[in-house]
């Protein structure tokens, strides 16, 4: 595997332009795969610069497509670049690139949502979690329809130190629809504050880098695009299991315009809802009239710690889902009504 020796000269030799590659291999963008290509090398270089120093680094690129960003990563000096691409049509163009950078590009034809990145790089590059991040970077101009489920999956991986994070605090530089990028980086009290803001920020240092106008892509998407950089925190701001935090955050934000108490109540079965919600808020020292967008990460930490304690004291609480109770109650009411009707006949 590469990246052991230093690569003296890492600039790529002259190659057909990305536009020529697209024509050569007849790579019409597939809407189904959210394909919007970046052909401007100044922009792809700018994205790559956000990742930091890539000289001799290990990199995984998500969805390389015709290879614009891939070229910038190689020009920045990456020694071992693993590209994961779902669409077979791009593989010949990527092979051409790999031949131009011998021993530096590995091509995986696969789906990033299921690819086992923990097996994609040698174990010796791993760093301890508390140490500096490893020299491994994930970079991608992500397909829009994959970006949100993918970042949630990777946030869970960060929490569990699995997937790309078996190597330590692997950094990510990714593109999102501008609206999603704004949610990821939104601070307390802002209009864009949402589930994604809390889930990303309790686990990572999240930095909004810059916005790329939609017109820079071919074909032009409906929206602008935001570049976001993530560095997993050595100490997550909330020290509870990911699923528990996710449950609280989801419940709070389901009534985003109401007082936070409204959503938090739904964590508890109807029979003890008011009593336990009150205990949760009191023991967490959270004002029940705060709106979800006004809750800080410290509020969420206190809520998660108290809720975890309540779950330890109340058997079955962790698995409680108010939607299931609603469905059961509706079914029971229907059965009672038909029994009542039967008694008249
Ligand atoms: N990186 C290229 C660029 O910047 O021009 C292409 C970006 S395009 C927005 C997204 C790319 O991701 C496409 O090449 C598409 O085929 C690929 N893709 C879509 N879904 C994928 C998945 N689940 N796993 C891996 N690649 C995927």
TrEMBL record:
S-adenosyl-L-methionine binds at residues 36, 38, 63, 85, 111, 141. Belongs to the class I-like SAM-binding methyltransferase superfamily. rRNA adenine N(6)-methyltransferase family. KsgA subfamily. Pfam families: RrnaAD. GO terms for molecular function: DNA binding; mitochondrial transcription factor activity; RNA binding; rRNA (adenine-N6,N6-)-dimethyltransferase activity; S-adenosyl-L-methionine binding. Its main location: mitochondrion. GO terms for biological process: transcription initiation at mitochondrial promoter. Its EC number is 2.1.1.-. It comes from the Eukaryota. Residues 43-234 form the Ribosomal RNA adenine methylase transferase N-terminal domain. It comes from Chanos chanos (Milkfish). One of its GO terms (cellular component) is mitochondrial matrix. Keywords: DNA-binding, Methyltransferase, Mitochondrion, RNA-binding, rRNA processing, S-adenosyl-L-methionine, Transcription, Transcription regulation, Transferase, Transit peptide. InterPro entries: KsgA/Erm, rRNA_Ade_diMease-like_C, rRNA_Ade_methylase_Trfase_N, rRNA_adenine_dimethylase, SAM-dependent_MTases_sf. It is found in: Mitochondrion. This is rRNA adenine N(6)-methyltransferase.
